[in-house]
Amino acid sequence: MDRILFGDNQFFAVNHISDDKSMAQSMKFKEDSAIIRTLDYAIHAGVDTFMCTTHDRIANICEYVRQHPDHYKNFKIYPCMPYAHKYANAMTELGIAGTIKQYVPGNVFGSFFKGGVAFLSKDYLSIMELLIDAEMKMFKGINTPVIFLQNVMTDMLLGMGMKEVLVAFHQYVRKKYNAEAGFITMNMPKLVEFFEDTPVKNPIICASINKVGFRMSGGKEAYEHTLKTKQFRAIAMQVLAGGAVPPKEALEYVCSLPNIESILFGASSKTNIEETVSLIHKFDGVVKP
Amino acid sequence: MAKVRTGIIGIGKMGISHLAILGAHPDVEVVGVCDNSKMMIDAIEKYSSFPCFTDHKKMLDTAKPDAVLVAVPTRFHASMVNDLLDRNIHVFAEKPFVLKPEEGQPLVDKAKQKGLVNQVGYHNKFLGTFREVKKIVESGLLGNIYHFHGQAYGPVVTKPKSDTWRSNPEEGGGCLMDYASHVIDLVNYLLAPVSGARGSQLKSIFSKQVDDAVYSTLVLSNGVSGNLSVNWSDETYRKMTTSITINGTTGKLVSDANELKVFFHSNNTPAGYSKGWNIKYLTDLTPTVDYYLRGEEYSAQLDYFIKAVQGKGPNTLNTFESALQTDKAISFIRQAQ
């Protein structure tokens, strides 16, 4: 994985701190061209990997990338699925069965081959595979070397102790898409431990890692200890803790930690993108262990 | 200390989230998971190690839990909670508490009389931001509070759709029961219990049978009045967003789950604040939890419940009694149409 990954929260009105800011972002990135322009700023700053949710609008971005193969020659996307709010809002209205009915391709409750059979035989892992395929459709023809499970799913399966399902995600993504599985989590130390006796070796794990301990469940010390003592490929996200830490201080802290392969960040402006990238390079040369 | 033997009835959207949180809780042993959907219960049985049931009475007889979470459609709450209390089981029920307020009082009384822990899932009270609002209001430094505006918006029903229990008014569906209840409960907690409503507008925007938006004027037991404005068919919001504005003679406060903004007229402020605008964020106000799923508040409320069952903490937030006040306010709002 590249050292720096570009995220997509700013494009889809995800702001962990302010609902006003999130609405302003939603206005700013109303047009797909605004997203593409910002992605190009990131590429220009040397960041070639875009880590994004399987939001409907990403399909348009993928289409643009396919139409401009020369410009996006080195460009990679790390899809993160599922786009949780789509399902959460559907679940409030339709219930769990209704949501599966709405989003699993084909008619799972009818005779459609894989879906129908999977549903009737309660072959839940096949239903999961169908959902993965549905989410992956938009990325056809695009380089997607790592495919992530979103934290709501990862953490729910972790809480319920469903190892088999997390392992099945890892295996299917490798078999069908020739990609590595990644897991986003808000419970990094617990997840790393959870994978220890499974076939998932050296897993890619993306978690909040920041100087103030924001969304670092179980505490910052537990995270630092896990980074020092366990074997896994860590991606640090939410390094600014939603704005609670100034960029310089935030990046100096993250760059000084051992075992962090990549840093994920999002920004809306050219200046912020360039500043973040140059700070990471600067601290990598100074404090990286 | 022995783990709290806990069962859960109902594995829908909230139930499954509670189950994962309980599964990760060091002081909890999940002794039974129950749902009448074979599809859901088979999935849990196949991939987890939790004992599973499709009949809740069988679960109670076999698993003998100390505490049970009830996350079934609202219309089943009253009889189910009553059964649990009869069996001397501590109860956490999802919100809203009961469909008809008259069903609630006997349950409040029974829980009290038997000394059982009772809690309802109004999770906003476990957010650092709203807790801070409560502290500021109680300091009296906003002066005489004369108005409030409680709001919640989100994109649940944004086009005409098929029906489920949530679209049936007889079963506890609709924006008033599902969305507005959170705001009403917050007003009850932060200011004073709602004692009446005027000029309610319950609007069906896309749904055929239930309200998708609720607008009403609420009057509180301390005489303060304010507006309620809730709409779950607002696609300009990515997810549910709840906020409250409080106007006082010496200050004004605007808070949602993430950000608290408060203006003070003078230097007479609570510690850590100053004259003019002050902004505080969830990041400063919410303690880290041991296991996170969808928000610190969901883990914090279950931890509070489990601690109360263990006798290690209070059972004063989100009691049946306080949730019943919210159910009463819901009927005032309906009657004021």
Strand residue percentage of chain A = 5-15%
CATH topology of chain A: TIM Barrel
CATH architecture of the largest domain in chain B, by name, is: 2-Layer Sandwich
Characterize the biggest β-sheet of chain A.
Answer: 8 strands, parallel
CATH class membership of chain A: Alpha Beta
Question: What's the number of domains of chain A?
Answer: 1
- Order of strands, main sheet of chain A, comes to 1-8-7-6-5-4-3-2
- The tally of helices of chain A reads 12
Order of helices and strands of chain B: EHEHEHEHEHEHEHEEEEEEEHHH
SSE order of chain A, as H and E? EHHEHEHHHEHHEHEHEHEH
- Give me the count of strands of chain B: 14
Please identify the oligomeric state.
heterodimer
Strands of chain A, total number: 8
CATH superfamily of chain A: NADP-dependent oxidoreductase domain
CATH 2nd-level architecture of chain A: Alpha-Beta Barrel
Which CATH class of the largest domain in chain B applies here? Alpha Beta
Q: Name the structural class of chain B.
A: alpha/beta
- The shape of chain A is globular
Ends of chain A: how far apart? 18 Å
pLDDT averaged residue by residue of chain A: 89
CA-to-CA gap between the ends of chain B? 52 Å
How would you explain this protein's 3D organization?
The complex is a heterodimer of chains A (289) and B (337). Chain A is of the alpha/beta class and 289 residues long. Chain A has a single domain, classed as TIM Barrel (Alpha-Beta Barrel). Chain A contains 12 helices and 8 strands. In chain A, helix 11 packs parallel to helix 12. Chain A starts with a strand and ends with a helix. In chain A, 45% of the residues are buried. Chain B folds into 2 domains: 4-123 and 306-310, Rossmann fold; 124-286 and 319-335, Dihydrodipicolinate Reductase, domain 2 (2-Layer Sandwich). In chain B, helix 1 links the parallel strand 1 (4-9) and strand 2 (28-34). In chain B, helix 4 packs parallel to helix 5 and helix 7 crosses helix 10 (320-335). Chains A and B meet through helix 1, helix 4 and helix 7 of A and helix 1, helix 2 and helix 8 of B.
